[in-house]
Amino acid sequence: MISGAKPAADTTAAAGHRSVPARPAGDRSGAGLGRLALFGALSALGPVSIDMYAPALPKMAAALGGAPRDLQLTMTVFVAGLAIGQLVIGPVSDAVGRRRPLLWGLALYTCASLACAAATGTWWLTAGRLAQALGAAGALVLVRAVVRDLYTGTHLSRTFARLMLVNGLAPVLAPAIGGFAVGWVGWRWLFVAMAASGAAMYLAVLLKLPDSRPPGPDRAVDARRLLRSMGRVLGDRAFVVNTAGAGLTFAGCLFAYVAGGPFVLQVVYGLSPQAFAAVMGVNGVGIILAGRLSNLLVGRWGEYAMVVLGMSVACVGGAGVLVTTTVHLGLPVLLCALFVLVGPIGLVVPNSASLALAAHAETAGAASALLGVTHLVIGAIAIPLVGIGGGTDPVVLGTVMVVFTASALALTVALRPRKAG
């Protein structure tokens, strides 16, 4: 596996379960790289499920007889489903293991994607997206928990950064697929493709991924124990500050952009779905480059410095979007500002996750769930705010971006934990 795996203390699995020993540092085996690719695909499942259909939102609204707000509601519901699913699956996985809940989630995601493909109205689509999100939540929360099971320190942040490189492909490939598929085969086939990807990941996990935390007799599911675990996590100041700061950044940089961007750039500025997909792809490249920069510098500068740097750059990008839309500087300037805004996700998210999860080896599932839920709840707040004014007002979009990114930086700097970075 990638460098930085901590030595395995005990590689014996419980009866009937396969455990995965941590690989030694520097292991570049094909199996390790394959597992990293699977981790990246699983962690990208939720973002892909949003990014792939974002270019199709205007056409879906027309086909299903809904307003822009109706389709933005499907995105809000999806985000809420991701939050609820993680909140349940993460703590449960600390008791029953990571592998079984992951398989259950992927099966639900696959079936719900097919239901979305058959939708005849916005409410049917909304219900299908909720079920789809509950399934995808397992992939999101359990990948973080498995990585925390295997890595510590800067190796943990480097692993998250490598996953961010893979995740950066989501806004590159998913919108491109979505934008071109809308014109060629129609939006329903996007959900068929999601179902196919869910089924493929199910088979990969079933055949290739052992359990990094097999269930044991001392870890039975107990509601009070799960609540105590979550209480301990929430009592950690480093966890709270880093999770909230990253959530505000993620909401301002990505959720607001994905929810409002399709309507602002296509309806107001006249981009085609294909052109909008290309714009999202370029922004995805920015995330990849920022993740690579983080991987190179985190050992020298530390995680906290990477987080503050990323948030500062995002604030500049958000201010650029607001100024550009307010004084009408034109589409090229707006696209540059969006690039500066979105790219720093590759600096903020992996390092804040490393700082937040560092002290929670025994409750990695609960901590990962709370981290993911916080990000998504804040994102769910940002999405309807973008819809103020009908969902097509560029100034509203820029304002939301500025407020969220500036709040993230102020929170992170003002409440910096003593041992950050």
UniProtKB/TrEMBL annotation:
Topological category with respect to the lipid bilayer: Multi-pass membrane protein
Domain Major facilitator superfamily (MFS) profile: 32-420
Record key words, sorted: Cell membrane, Membrane, Transmembrane, Transmembrane helix, Transport
Transmembrane segments: 33-53, 73-90, 102-124, 130-147, 159-183, 189-209, 238-259, 271-291, 303-323, 329-349, 369-389, 395-415
Subcellular location: Cell membrane
Region Disordered: start-end pairs: 1-27
InterPro entries noted in UniProt: Efflux_drug-R_Bcr/CmlA, MFS, MFS_dom, MFS_trans_sf, Sugar_transporter_CS
Low complexity composition-biased segments: 1-15
CDD domains named among the record's database cross-references: MFS_MdfA_MDR_like
Gene3D superfamilies: Multidrug resistance protein D
Key word Heme present: no
Family statement drawn from the similarity comment of this UniProt entry: Belongs to the major facilitator superfamily. Bcr/CmlA family.
Protein name in the entry: Multidrug effflux MFS transporter
UniProt source species: Dactylosporangium roseum
Lineage, highest ranks first: Bacteria, Bacillati, Actinomycetota, Actinomycetes, Micromonosporales
